Each structure stands twice: as C-alpha cells, then as structure tokens.
Task: inverse folding
DNA sequence: TCCTAACAGTTAGGATACCTAAATATCAAG
DNA sequence: CTTGATATTTAGGTATCCTAACTGTTAGGA
C-alpha cells in the first residue's frame, strides 16, 4: 500500500537522520575538546552579549533546565566573563550581562570554531556545500518541533 | 578579493552549521531522555549484534576512549543485554556479543526512536525531506573528516 | 628460551553537564 | 495582608567522558 511505502521511506530517512545526529554529537564534542569555553558556556555567553539576558530565558533558549543554566552562569561569572545584577524591574530576576572580557572570549571562541568547521567545509565540493546549506533551515525547523 | 569572499561564505556557512550542530545535541538529548537505553549504550549494543565486537573497535567506532566503552559494556552486561567472552584467537582481547534480550532491546529502541523522528519528518514538505536526504551523506563525510 | 616492547582491557580517580526537589525571595491579585 | 505563582539558587545525585596506572598476553629478537 502507498501509505506503508511512505511510512517505510520516512522510517528509513529517520534512521539515517538519527545516524547523522549521533555523528553531530561526536563532532560537537571534538569541537569542544579543543577549547577553553565549553559550548554550553559559549551558548550562555552569547545570550549575555546584548546585556540583559535572564536566567530562565537562557535556560529555555539553551534547552536545559534553569539550575543547569545557573551553574554555567556561575562558572562564567567566576571566570570574569559575565556579571549578574538584579533586574531593576523585577527583583526576583537576575540579568546576566557579558563583560568586555566575555565579549572578547565569544569572538575568539566563535572565530576559532568557525575556522575549524570552515576548514572541513572547504574540502567539500560546491554541490556538497549547497546540500548542507539547503538542509540547515530544515534542521532548524526539526529542532523547533522537538523543542515543543 | 575573490579568495576572501569565498572564505567569508565558508565561515558564514560554518557558523550556521555550528548552530545546527548545537541543536542536534539538543534533539539527541530529547531522544535519549524518553528511553531506557542511552544512545551510547544503543551504539555499543548495535556493534555487538553481529556477535563478536572487540572493545577497542567499539570505542573507535563510537568516537570514545576504551575505558568509556568498557564502562558502557559493563552496564549492558549487568542488564543482561550483552555478554563478554575471551577472544579464542587472542587472549588479551574480549569479544562482546549481544544476547537475545540485547537483540530485542535494539530492535525496540531503534523502532521507537525512528518512529519519533519519522513523526517529525512527516510534518515536513517533500522538498524539505529531500533537502535532509541530500545533506545526510555530506554530514557523514564531515564526520569522517573530524574523526581524523 | 627468555626478555622486552607493544597491545587489549580494566580499574581508579576526577571533571563536566544535566536533572529533580527543596529552599529563598519577590510579585501580584484579591 | 495573605496566598499562589514566579525567578533563582542550593543541595544532592546521575551519566558520560577522560587520563593514568595496572594486569595480562603476544610477538620479535638476542
């Protein structure tokens, strides 16, 4: 039946997709292992760049629970990369802002990581890069589905 | 200059790609959180299906160090999903083989995870699925580059 | 034959990131 | 002014990974 064929194709794609996911985790780990700033911390730091991210928002955006975000924020604070200050409008809340050192750290980390990945992407054919390019927005969409 | 333009494009693609990687980690975590078998364990178990995977091979294939593989293997053994036996040809080595229960566990876990992902893929347009499909081999290639 | 270097795996110890539950403080509505 | 909801932190625990050190086996000379 047509439906089952469609399902089978979908399941086969899902299987391959899962394989790619597993690999992504591995690539991410490699990327992290060469750096001082973990990707979790880099994620927090980037959200603190605009000057007033709240802990809950950071956690939501990062796909982790609030205590996990707090943990990273504390580490960054101890490293002098962000500062925490009371939200003037809501004393329950905390605003996390990158310090100048934090800003510099983001730029450095981002650049190095991008160069590493760009180095790999540079070995691909243009068609392959186009394929990646075309898939990225879809990945974004998939993530949002999962985010739920 | 042409070279710099190409570099810039590559770096921009790298940036987007990294964003997708970050999301992948998140999706993977979600996928894992709903299951009994972690994806690390599922990976080990799959390699044990053919009956005689060695610890070192499993570690290499999984992109982790040998002690990390051992750790997962021990957990699987305690759960009755694999058994360890001496390699008849080389007494230093250990052969890891899935038990019938292990085999069943893989099938179950794989099916459930594939269905979860297929459910998401099913909400996409055909063009979007094609884009994913086309990008998967490239992801594979990128992974192999990183594996180094 | 025996020694030694290389190799396969396990054990021990430690780091990191994540989670849930409980505690603290503030806000907002009645 | 009380009470329930909200924002964050603290406490405690889990999983995965890592490096270094240890045990046992193999293989290639001297």
Result:
């Amino acid at each position: 039946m047509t439906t089952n064929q469609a399902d089978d194709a979908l399941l086969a794609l899902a299987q391959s997709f899962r394989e790619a996911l597993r690999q992504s985790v591995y690539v991410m780990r490699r990327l992290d292992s060469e750096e001082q700033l973990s990707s979790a911390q880099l994620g927090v730091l980037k959200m603190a760049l605009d000057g007033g991210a709240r802990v809950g928002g950071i956690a939501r955006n990062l796909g982790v629970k609030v205590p996990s975000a707090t943990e990273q924020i504390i580490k960054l604070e101890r490293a002098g990369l962000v500062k925490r200050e009371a939200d003037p409008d809501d004393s329950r809340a905390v605003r996390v802002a990158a310090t100048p050192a934090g800003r510099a750290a983001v730029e450095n980390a981002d650049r190095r990581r991008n160069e590493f990945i760009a180095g790999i992407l540079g070995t691909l054919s243009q068609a392959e890069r186009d394929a990646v390019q075309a898939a990225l927005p879809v990945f974004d969409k998939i993530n949002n589905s999962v985010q739920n």
Notes: The mean pLDDT of chain B is 93.
